[in-house]
Amino acid sequence: MLxxxxxxxxxxxxxxxxxxxxxLQRQFAPLAxxxxxxxxxxxxxxxxxxxxxxxxxxxxxxxIDADDLxxxxxxxxxxxxxxxxxxxxxxxxxxxxxxxxxxxxxQAFILGNTFVDPTRLDDALFALTPDILxxxxxxxxxxxxxxxxxxxxxxxxxxxxWSCLDPAEFVARWPRLFAGAGAAACxxxxxxxxxxxxxxxxxxxxxxxxxxxxxxxxxxxxxxxxA
Length: 227
Fold this sequence. Notes:
Layout: H1 10-28, E1 40-44, E2 51-56, E3 60-64, E4 69-71, H2 78-84, H3 90-98, E5 107-108, E6 112-113, E7 143-146, E8 153-157, H4 167-171, H5 174-178, H6 183-196, E9 209-213
Antiparallel strand pairs: 1-2, 2-7, 3-4, 3-8, 5-6, 8-9
Helix pairs in contact: 2-3
């Protein structure tokens, strides 16, 4: 990942990541055992432009402010496969994805995907685009530009934070935890909350979190002498 060049548009970013995905599949091919995989939820930050979101797996990007939070990514899980096929409606999908937690995944970086054919693993990555998403998910394609709102918090998090019996209850605490705090303090508050007041039924899983907070455009307040 660190060897990839900086990118200023989604097609270029996607081309580099698709190539890296294939390269790593070939690298792991001679090894015995099942192919490894990882979720990858990435924000590229071109100077002076919107952020570029690229997403594969079941980690998430959240936008959090003092009053609310929004999920900006779609989990690549079996319930989403069903949603693409028109087999579940919005309420059923939200209950399965955000109201409960299951360890199954439908796509991961290096691993491949089961969106193309749910009965087998396809080598390629499969981008969820507006033309194939149901209307209630159409605004959240996997690869898109995202405008970062001044003073909002953006949390990139792995699924260990909602691997519990009632994920929605724990996630609903986050606006209060993050209110008025800087990015570093938000991370500390999140890990302190899960250590001291863990959600019911928390399962051991990877806990990874990155928080960024935008401050809006810089305003130069330098004043010239009146003379």
